[in-house]
Amino acid sequence: MTGFELLYQAAALCLTYPDDDFRARLPLLREAAPQLRGFTDHAAATEQGALQAHYVEVFDFKNRHSLYLSWWTDGDTRNRGMSLVRFKELYRAHGLEFTDEELPDFLPAVLEFASRTGNIGMLTEHRDALDQLRSRLTAFGTPYACVLDAVCATLPPAPTGARP
User: Fold this and answer.
1) Mean pLDDT, 10 residues at a time, the chain of 164 residues
2) What's the rounded Cα separation, in Å, for the pair 42 and 147?
3) In this predicted structure, what is the pLDDT of residue 2?
4) Which residues is 68 bridged to in the sheet?
5) Backbone dihedral angles phi then psi of residue 106, each to the nearest 5 degrees
6) What is the rounded distance in angstroms from the CA atom of residue 140 to the CA atom of residue 113?
7) Helix or strand or coil: residue 18?
8) Which of 53, 72, 115, 133 could join 5 via S-S bond, C-beta 3.0 to 4.6 A?
């Protein structure tokens, strides 16, 4: 176990679409994961519609801020299919079935998996991609960058010369 399970669960919730359930959980998230205060304070002070519009602007219009980890390593190629299968197999090996609501490499799903199992292998394997996403979110000027900052701070550094 890594000791960061609560942070990973909170980060997963922060990186999903901010619906009414997110708004209801926000006070708990602010208390449970002080590392995410930069984002949760912003979310608490932002009107729901504006927060939702910002999420769509940041994550849904371009792959530049993709929350799909295999996109960073495989792009939109055939190889991505095999990467997605690896994620599903890992979940199954831990007794979890992945629903088809999202792809299995969706960062919030991977964070939730790490939270439930303590297995950070996929996060570590995709550390370089997480660093690139964090850098791009920071350059974009979005509070979502602090969520990636907190997650990356829990992981070992990417190997030298790592490239997605």
Assistant:
1) 82 96 94 94 97 95 85 76 84 83 90 94 93 96 97 85 48
2) 12
3) 52
4) 106
5) -60, 120
6) 28
7) coil
8) 115
What values do phi and psi take at 68, rounded to 5? -100, 110
Q: Residue 87: what pLDDT?
A: 85
Tokens representing 69 are: 């980890």
Tell me the CA distances in angstroms from 50 to 17, 19, 80, one per residue in order. 12, 12, 33
Using left for φ > 0, alpha for ψ between -120 and 50, and beta otherwise, residue 127 falls in alpha
Which two structure tokens, joined as six digits, stand for 23? 């708004």
Predicted TM-score (pTM) of the model is 0.89
The confidence score (pLDDT) of residue 160 equals 63
Question: What is the per-residue burial (b if ≥16 Cβ within 10 Å, else e) of 5-29?
Answer: bebbbbbbbbbbebeeebeeebeeb
Tokens matching residue 109: 């799903």
Instruction: Residue 69: name the closest of 115, 128, 1 by CA.
Output: 128
Name which of 123, 146, 125 is nearest 58 in CA terms: 146
Q: What angle (nearest 5°) sits at the alpha carbon of residue 152, between those of residues 140 and 21?
A: 70
